[in-house]
Amino acid sequence: MTRDDLADTLEEIALLLELKGENPFKIRAYRGGAEIVRQFSGDIVLLAKNNELKGIKGIGDALQQKLHELASTGKLDFYENLRAEFPETLFDLFKIPGLGPKKIKALYEALAVDSVAKLKEVAESGEMAKLSGFGAKTAEKILEAIAFRESNADRFRLGDVAGAVASILDDLKAHPECLRAEAAGSYRRAKETVHDIDFLVASSKPELIIKYFVSLEGVQKVIAEGATKASVYLESGLQCDLRVVSNEEYVCALAYFTGSKEHNVVMRGRALEQGYTLNEYRLGVKEGSDKEVPPAFETEAQLYEFLGLEYIPPELRENTGEVEAAEEGDLPRLIEVENLRGTFHNHTVASDGKNTLEEMAGAAIELGLQYLGIADHSKSSFQANGLDASRLRKQLNEIKALNQKFTEEGTKFRVFAGSEVDILKDGSLDFDDEMLGELDYVVASVHNAMTLSEKDMTDRLIKAVNHPSVTMLGHLTGRLLLRREPYAVNIPAVIDACAETGTIIELNANPWRLDMDWRWWKLATEKGVKCSINPDAHSIDHLDFLWFGVRLARKGWLTREDVINTRDLTDIETFLNVDPVS
Q1: Is position 257 within any domain?
Q2: Less crowded by CB within 10 Å, the N or C end of the chain?
Q3: What is the CB neighbour count within 10 angstroms for residue 205?
């Protein structure tokens, strides 16, 4: 049971009470309680478990009792009973963009909408449009959201599957008959979303590996089980496929099952040109060729070298010029996680983060970083408890004091004072120039009015890019993977504007975003635009999102030199034109 578990439960109770039409003060108490739990500086879970919450402002006797039950037993009868009053399918409605508790309540009461299927039905029939507060345009947008959801129903975000993949891979490697194992497919290539996961194992006893795989913890259903292949569904609905090959076949199989299909076609063509055939098991001599039998390959690098190529990292295997570059010896040396020295765009409890300034800094130090940028939301992001100028200046003083403390302790670490400033509809910024001038850096982001035309959105972003205080653009297209399409914007035009002004574009490493998309980074670097890999961390755990950012940066052909936060503290202070902490 974690802090998030406690807060999420209170928030869902508030939603359910709202659906029931309960007293708004009661609803507000649960929502307020969730916020207090998220922002409390101490160990709120331990206090709840020990029934020691008395005296915490905003958490009355009823909430204390419920939090104690939840923290000490792992469940809450009140919540379970409340949830049981509604059909299970009703909760899928909260995943549809544009539907909040009030709209769901109205649909549920007036039209008995208790599932996505029923929602689609009333939107298509015109019944929804007749309801007060809806209309034809709302129904149209909801149908678009449902269609988007259906088209991505069998896909998973990279970040959603990473834990399960790592766990299964560890289990496979631990089996005594496993010689080598790897996750292949689009996961290995670091695609932002995946359909399924391909596992490859080298073993002389495939039947034992197969039997072990289908019985792993977390397997919900066995789809197929053969002598060398098996497919299963995990509890999450993710399909995992396993192929077991001999150790001699492993390298060619790994290259083949990593893909992509387009990359494999080019590789097979290259092998044929040289008198060989390449398939999922081996590189063989082409019929009628006088070539000698190729040696056994121990690594993929040896296979690529045999075909006259530099080793091509898995992330680049999309047939976007990587084979030609490998032939010329012109592949970039891609960025590694170890190259990062710090990061920007992180949040604290001052806005909508879950950890304090001190906790975020401490976690960054533990990761071995030299600096951390704090960029809490600006005032227009009221839904995220954005800071006005007064609250932001208070935070600047707190950051200054913390940096002074690090200096006195001899800790070589610095917190940079920034803000994620909203780009308003007309392209102006959410703070005046005086306030912006007090910051070490500015992340400028769009959080509202996302339905502008492509021209208007592009003009909006370019106007922000041209503001002298803007250091970098945050989550350039506003997309939420598998949840919300990117807004319409001319990305090449924005890249050109950033190249002119020296504005950085972030690679937002949150697995829901991974924005700017990897497909645009080659163009950006050709224009001289720098990247900052930012986790958009709203908790200390989110700093680990940097790993996803680096995977996607590699997929975008980015090197250490292309990424601004590979620079050490001294270089970054110079770049940001800020004085070292004295």
Answers
A1: yes
A2: C
A3: 13
408 token code pair:
């006195």
Instruction: State the pTM of this model.
Output: 0.80
Nearest to 369 by CA among 345, 339, 346: 339
Domain count, the chain: 4
Question: What per-residue confidence (pLDDT) applies to 340?
Answer: 98
Q: Answer whether 167's CB lies under 8 Å from 216's CB.
A: no
pLDDT of 236 > 90? The answer is no
Burial class (CB in 10 A: 0-12, 13-18, 19+), 561: middle
In this structure, the answer to whether residues 377 and 508 fall within a common structural domain is: yes
pLDDT at 423: 98
For 270, the token pair is 């290259």
Which residues have C-beta within 8 Å of that of residue 398, sequence separation ≥ 6? 357
Q: How far is 141 from 121, CA to CA, in rounded Å? A: 14
C-alpha span between 542 and 317 (Å, rounded): 28
The whole domain housing 97 covers 3-151
Band (pLDDT 50/70/90 cuts) for residue 193 is very high
Rounded Cα gap, residues 305 and 80, in angstroms: 60
Residue closest to 70 by CA, chosen among 24, 130, 30: 30
Which pair of structure tokens corresponds to residue 326?
């490998």
Longest dimension (CA), the chain: 86
Express each pLDDT in 64-77 by its tens digit: 999 999 999 989 99
Same domain, 421 and 545: yes
Sign of the four-CA dihedral 51, 56, 62, 66: negative
Cα(68)–Cα(53) distance, rounded to whole angstroms?
8
Residue with tokens 């419920």: 66
* C-beta of residue 477 within 8 angstroms of C-beta of residue 516: yes
Distance from C-alpha of 563 to C-alpha of 532, rounded to nearest angstrom: 5
pLDDT above 80 (res 151): no
Nearest Cα to Cα of residue 309 among 291, 330, 292, 279: 330
Give the whole-angstrom CA distance, residue 86 versus residue 82: 8
The DSSP output letter for 55 is T
d(CA 133, CA 150): 25
The pLDDT of 136-146, averaged and rounded, is 89
Cβ neighbours of residue 48 closer than 8 Å, sequence gap 6 or more: 6, 64, 67, 68, 70, 71, 72
